[in-house]
Specification:
Catalyzes the reversible isomerization of glucose-6-phosphate to fructose-6-phosphate. The protein is of the alpha/beta class. The protein has 23 helices and 13 strands. The chain folds into three domains: about 250 residues, Rossmann fold (3-Layer(aba) Sandwich), CATH 3.40.50; about 190 residues, Glucose-6-phosphate isomerase like protein, domain 1 (Rossmann fold, 3-Layer(aba) Sandwich), CATH 3.40.50.10490; about 40 residues. Helix 4 crosses helix 14 and helix 14 crosses helix 21. The termini are far apart. It binds 6-O-phosphono-beta-D-fructofuranose.
Length: about 550
């Protein structure tokens, strides 16, 4: 290689798009042109079985992607040139790969077996992880058995998690996903929005004597969470006669910040700890999962962790050709870098996964929504996509039209299960085949479409032919598992965590900081006095000044 071309692993990393590996892909893309999946399957009917992989309990079919063996080889070369494997090892080994915050990135240590050794600054963190897990399990058992009672001695029947972002989305998503495994006598609610309506609706029908609040905040300074927690404390004390001692029986905290937890009035004995090497959006299998553990029980929670761990091992040890997170990450790099794909749809065909894509939005977009590289240089390539989607079949009757016949390339993941959950009564379980028929039909239609000749052959009037033609060639991944269990959910989440990691590594961005959320927070603090007291806010722009004035007028101030 000539020195001017640079390599992806030296200072020329910022010039990803000028590396030989990227240029080779660009050339390949030109040759690929408009090659249709119909042709790829004609040339190689074995694709349907050959382009599939297994990771844990997940069967992953990538045959309906706009790739050939050559594309995949070139993408793997790009991964190798950009040092994905080395960064992966650095992450698993506790190196401080979150450079802008000077932190290790060790969510994988949260599910490491008891006897594993993972060191941060020379200290093995695994014993502390299991100590907290054991403490969570003991507490969850106490709540589930009724041994932990409220201030009046009443049994806890309601658990309200107050948190936002990574301190909400994970447990809220997983509670929905694993409802069938949960204690149905417990009511779980999740409050995140600083809009008072959220807390109001969550508690309006609850009895404070039977309600446990879990205040989940890594920093314990997040304004939404602290505001809601303060209001929840007021609601509780109003309902229980005002004795402050009630707080200790009805509030627990999940945090890294013991000092702030104590300042809030929560007994530090009722704090479940985690650490700065757990990123907020990667924290759901830490103490942040306590509400879920109470709902499904410690055993099922450990099965979930086992699922995460199985995918970690797969990611770390499977060869590149068989490595599913690597493959999915690279496919995304291919579409974003060479097909101008701007978004990525995740479409679960399970009602229980109704919050799954919302969870992935933070995981992916807060991680890879970056425009400078790890050295602070502007990137010259596109980074993370807009992630979106809702469960099928609802989306089919809403936005699938655009995926089928719109102008954009929208790679999509279809996630489905062979079996309905066992608790469904036979009449409802029988609907599962119809659900899954839709699942398979959609990826078929997206890939192969319907040609104008096929439309004509149905006797369609000529003027309608273009409208009824489906060009097809829309790339999809199909992820199929036998059942939605805690272990499978863990595998799915870890699969996406590692996919996001791979993309961040290739794009040479820090996937683990989130400076982009800071400015809005600072400005909101500055603007609030203008709304409440009409205070002058220095530096407020004319548009916002006028909006604030209108707000105050409409608010009768
Ligand atoms: O939105 C920014 C963010 O820091 C997320 O990364 C995090 O998950 C969320 O806020 C909540 O933070 P905390 O758990 O500290 O309250």
């Amino acid at each position: 290689m000539n020195a001017q071309q640079g390599t992806a692993s030296d200072e020329g990393r910022t010039k990803l798009t000028r590396t030989p590996e990227w240029l080779a892909l660009a050339k390949h893309r030109e040759q690929f042109g408009r090659t249709h999946l119909r042709r790829l399957f004609e040339e190689d009917p074995g694709r349907g079985t050959g382009y599939t992989l297994r990771a844990g309990d997940l069967h992953v079919d990538y045959s309906k992607h706009l790739v050939t063996d050559e594309t995949l080889a070139l993408l793997r070369e790009l991964a190798s040139a950009t040092g994905v494997a080395a960064l992966r090892e650095a992450m698993f080994n506790g190196e401080k790969i979150n450079t802008t915050e000077g932190r290790a990135v060790l969510h994988t240590a949260l599910r490491a077996p008891r006897d594993a050794v993972v060191e941060v600054d020379g200290e093995n963190v695994v014993p502390a992880v299991h100590e907290v897990l054991d403490k969570m399990a003991a507490f969850a058992d106490q709540v589930r058995s009724g041994e932990w009672t409220g201030f009046t001695g009443a049994r806890i029947r309601n658990v309200v998690n107050i948190g936002i972002g990574g301190s909400d989305l994970g447990p809220a998503m997983a509670y929905e996903a694993l409802r069938a495994f949960s204690d149905r006598d417990l009511t779980l609610r999740f409050v995140s929005n600083v809009d008072g309506a959220d807390l109001h609706e969550a508690v309006r029908d609850l009895d404070p004597a039977e309600t446990l609040f879990i205040i989940a905040s890594k920093t314990f300074t997040t304004i939404e969470t602290i505001t809601n927690a303060t209001s929840a404390r007021g609601w509780l004390l109003d309902g229980l006669g005002g004795d402050q001692a009630a707080v200790a029986r009805h509030f627990v905290a999940l945090s890294t910040n013991a000092e702030k937890v104590t300042d809030f009035g929560i007994d530090p004995a009722n704090m479940f700890e985690f650490w700065d090497w757990v990123g907020g959006r990667y924290s759901f299998d830490s103490a942040i999962g306590l509400s879920l553990m109470i709902a499904i029980g410690p055993d099922a929670f450990r099965e979930l962790l086992g699922g995460f761990e199985a995918m970690d091992t797969h990611f770390r040890t499977a060869p590149p050709e068989e490595n599913v997170p690597l493959l999915l990450g690279l496919l995304g790099v291919w579409y974003i870098g060479f097909f101008d794909a701007q978004s990525h749809a995740v479409l679960p065909y399970s009602h229980y996964l109704s919050r799954f894509t919302a969870y992935l939005q933070q995981l992916d977009m807060e991680s890879n929504g970056k425009s400078v590289d790890r050295d602070g240089q502007p990137v010259e390539w596109q980074t993370g996509p807009v992630v979106w989607g809702t469960p099928g079949t609802n989306g089919q009757h809403a936005y699938y039209q655009l995926i089928h016949q719109g102008t954009r390339v929208i790679p999509a993941d279809f996630i489905g299960f062979a079996n309905p959950l066992p608790e469904l009564p036979p009449r409802l379980a029988a609907q599962h085949d119809l659900l899954m028929a839709n699942f398979f039909a959609q990826t078929q239609a997206l890939a192969f479409g319907k040609t104008a000749d096929e439309v004509r052959a149905e006797g369609t009037p000529e003027e309608l032919v273009p409208h009824k033609t489906f060009r097809g060639n829309h790339p999809t991944t199909t992820v199929l598992a036998a059942d939605l269990t805690p272990a499978v959910l863990g595998q799915l989440i870890a699969l996406y965590e590692h996919k996001v990691f791979v993309q961040g590594a290739v794009w040479n961005i820090d996937s683990f900081d989130q400076w982009g959320v800071e400015l809005g927070k600072v400005l909101a603090k500055r603007i609030e006095p203008a709304l409440t007291e009409g205070a002058d806010v220095p530096g407020l722009d004319p548009s916002t000044t006028a909006l604030v004035a209108t707000y105050r007028r409409l608010r009768g101030r």
